[in-house]
Design brief:
The protein has 751 residues and is an alpha+beta fold. The chain has seven helices and 45 strands.
Length: 751
């Protein structure tokens, strides 16, 4: 029985298996039929033709949004539009960011208020002066004792020319200043006070208007100007502030204003000037009804105009959209090729190997701060800082100007662009013919401003910085060290003795490494130049084991020459006077200038390295001469040395002129002249496009000054290792604290 039941079950299972198999075959046939009938007709591929549109307009710091739509298939691509970087002011505030800073315009004066031998430059705001046709203006500094009622026509704005009568301070001493001004009629005037700060601080002051009369009015300000009833205090920059909204009663004709130190402040304000404008006559432009005159494109700026109710028209720039219309991989508007993100090309200025000057075109895929480095097969080139860093916008091609003196370091084979988040690195392979692979003849160190003594709160800071720097240069193979002066600070004997102590310590470290220095302004300070100390503690300290010995000329036992291994010559010219700021100022004696001219003529067919402490004003080649960061003690125009130096260095272009004096750090060459500027400046080295000797700025080895003007004694010590080759010279800016080369301050010139 069990066997029959088992057989029956097996038969039933077999029948069910056959039926299931038949069903699967039918299903497969049905599916195959379904698939074959559902295949769509293949569409012919097409090239997208994108039409750009702007969805959200961009402003100064606010990015916008754009859209590209293909006319053929309707595909849409959304892109970011970069912020313009330009403020649009309405009613005293930017419509994009709300910023209330007052823009400044430089206006040259015909006066020299502080007696530095140059006419002053004052900084005014179009928002305060524009259309103030009935205004009376007073400009003056603490040292000005001139009075002028002449009407001066000054263009303080591109929109209008302003004509104001200008008045000057009539009396001043260390305690107070007196102004006399004339107004055309009695009435209520707005008193707009414009502070020009010398040291980055606002001071309190007491203003007495027509004191001792029935019309006497007194106003006092504190450091913060709190509780004064004034409507606003506005910072226009790090060196200027405006305060306005003060109303005073003035009488027709002469009014007297006295400024005293405020009770709440230990010092009075350094510089100040005023506008007095009849209340009711003030008019701030509000530009509305903007009309597009020229539409911007993907690559070119457009232009619009807006009109104020007074009838004045203002022209504005419309930034390029960056929205390219690519057809067959080429933009139909500007011709740009559609290519992958990265470093697109490097347009070199020169054909010689090692010369990096030129223009780099960069096209990032994502917005970020990108930092450029020299690199090799292992990545970033060892012991070199960044070359350039800035914010770049996604899908926007940017051009970076690499300063013409910049060198490609030996061993560098690539240029790298690294994003701030380190996730993206773009690489450019430097062409083989551009790589620097020359054999060095010799090298020497170039230092300045070691300032032994107590300047930085500790004698050990400048002493150790100097010792460490020279040892580093020795380890890098320097044959000698040249210094551009200021090895003391207060011109006291113990400072000279500290310098001599350092020389002896370094002599024990390397007796074949001579260290020669010129004198600077600090060796001429207070008691005047002491030749006896200079020779005893600076020159005749040790006997070096070297052939690089001074060559003296008859009649001048102070300045000297040294002949270098390749026949080049090093000159040391010593400053012997502390005398700045006047056209009659002198830093040298006549016989020294005669000596210099004789040496330059004698060695006119060789490379001449000149060490002299003070730089020439208005000549590039020193960071301290850059606008806004000027160091106040250069060789100014009109002086004997200025005139003779300009003549000599225009004639003898074979000279490399090393100067110190300012202490400014190498990185000041990144100060921007305008928003959006992507370049590094000629603040450390320049030759006026080949029309002048090569001017080279040396920072302080004791403590360089940063962009704030403050010295960082602990963390900053800078100078050069100068490498000499058969046909060129490389100046390697070096960080002696972190032991690395500044890629952006590594320069090259042809011999």
């Amino acid at each position: 029985m069990k066997h029959r039941i088992l057989a029956l079950l097996l038969t039933l299972a077999l029948l069910m298996s056959v039926v299931a198999c038949q069903n699967r075959e039918k299903t497969a046939e049905t599916d195959a039929t379904s698939v074959s009938t559902s295949v769509p007709t293949e569409e012919k591929p097409h090239e997208h033709s994108f039409r750009p549109t702007v969805i959200t307009k961009q402003f100064c710091i606010v990015a916008g949004e754009g859209e590209r739509t293909c006319d053929s298939c309707g595909e849409k691509i959304t892109v970011s539009l970069p912020a313009t970087g330009e403020h649009i002011f309405r009613n005293g505030a930017c419509i994009g960011c709300g910023q209330s800073q007052i823009p400044l315009t430089a206006v040259p004066s015909i006066y020299d208020a502080n007696g530095d031998g140059r006419n002053d430059t004052y900084y005014f705001s179009p928002l305060l002066t524009d259309r103030f046709d009935g205004a009376v203006h007073v400009w003056a500094g603490d040292y000005d004792t001139k009075l002028s009622s002449s009407t001066v026509s000054t263009s303080t704005s591109s929109e209008a020319e302003v004509k104001l009568p200008h008045w000057y301070v009539t009396y001043g001493n260390g305690e107070y200043i007196v102004y006399r001004i004339n107004v055309p009629e009695d009435g209520l005037y707005e008193m707009a006070i414009h502070f020009r700060m010398k040291d980055g601080q606002l001071r309190g002051a007491k203003y007495t208007i027509n004191g001792g009369t029935e019309n006497e009015q007194v106003f006092e300000t504190s450091h913060s100007f709190t509780g004064t009833g004034y409507e606003a205090v506005r910072d226009a920059s790090t060196v200027t502030s405006y305060m306005y909204g003060i109303t005073v009663n003035l009488k027709k004709g002469e009014n007297i204003i006295r400024i005293d130190q405020a009770d709440s402040c230990e010092k009075t304000q350094h510089f100040r000037d005023f506008y007095f404008v009849k209340v009711g006559e003030i008019h701030h432009h509000v530009y509305e009804n903007e009309t597009v005159k020229k539409q911007s494109t993907c690559a070119k700026e457009g232009r619009s105009e807006a009109t104020c109710a007074c009838g004045l028209t203002c022209s504005k720039v419309i930034p390029a959209t960056g929205l390219h219309n690519f057809v067959d991989a080429t933009c139909t508007v500007c011709g740009r090729k559609d290519q992958p993100a990265g470093i697109l090309y490097y347009d070199f200025l020169y054909d010689q190997p090692g010369f990096a000057g030129g223009t780099v075109s960069f096209y990032p895929e994502h917005s970020d701060t990108y930092t450029f480095y020299w690199g090799d097969s292992n990545g970033q080139l060892a012991n070199y800082t960044m070359l350039y860093s800035d914010l770049f916008i996604a899908n926007q091609e940017a051009e970076i100007t690499i300063q013409s003196f910049t060198a490609i370091p030996k061993g560098a084979t690539k240029l790298l662009a690294v994003s701030a988040d380190k996730r993206t690195t773009y690489t450019y392979d430097i062409p083989a013919e551009r790589l620097f692979d020359k054999e060095q003849l010799y090298s020497f160190g170039a230092l300045s401003d070691s300032h032994q003594g107590n300047r930085y709160g500790s004698q050990s800071i400048p002493y150790n910085h100097f010792i460490d720097a020279v040892k580093d240069l020795s380890n890098m193979g320097a044959l000698m060290i040249g210094m551009s002066g200021d090895f003391s600070y207060e011109n006291e004997e113990f400072e000279y003795q500290l310098h001599a102590k350092a020389i002896k310590e370094l002599y024990a470290f390397n007796p074949k490494l001579p260290i020669y220095t010129t004198s600077g302004n600090h060796e001429c300070k207070y008691t005047g130049f002491s030749k006896e100390w200079f020779l005893k503690y600076s020159r005749n300290v040790v006997d070096y084991d070297t052939d690089l010995l001074p060559i003296f000329e008859s009649g001048n036992d102070l300045d000297f020459a040294i002949e270098l291994p390749d026949g080049s010559v090093m000159l040391y010219l010593n400053q012997i006077y502390y005398d700045y700021g006047k056209t009659t100022s002198r830093l040298l004696d006549d016989y020294q200038i005669v000596w210099l001219e004789q040496q330059l003529e004698k060695y006119k067919d060789r490379t001449v390295f000149l060490f002299f402490h003070t730089f020439i004003d208005e000549e590039a080649g020193d960071a301290s001469t850059h606008t806004g960061k000027e160091y106040g003690l250069p060789l100014i125009s009109g002086t004997v040395e200025y005139k003779r130096f300009n003549e000599l260095f225009t004639k003898y272009k074979n000279v490399v002129y090393f100067s110190g004096h300012s202490h400014q750090s190498f990185d000041l060459q990144f100060m921007k002249e305008k928003a959006g500027d992507k370049s590094n400046l000629y603040t450390n080295i320049d030759n006026n496009n080949g029309a002048f000797a090569t001017m080279v700025h040396i920072p302080s080895v004791a403590a360089t000054r940063s962009g704030t003007g403050l010295s960082d004694a602990k963390n900053r010590s800078e100078g050069y290792l100068v490498r000499v080759y058969e046909d060129c010279i490389v100046f390697e800016g070096y960080d002696f604290v972190n032991n690395q080369n500044f890629a952006y301050a590594t320069y090259i010139i042809a011999k």
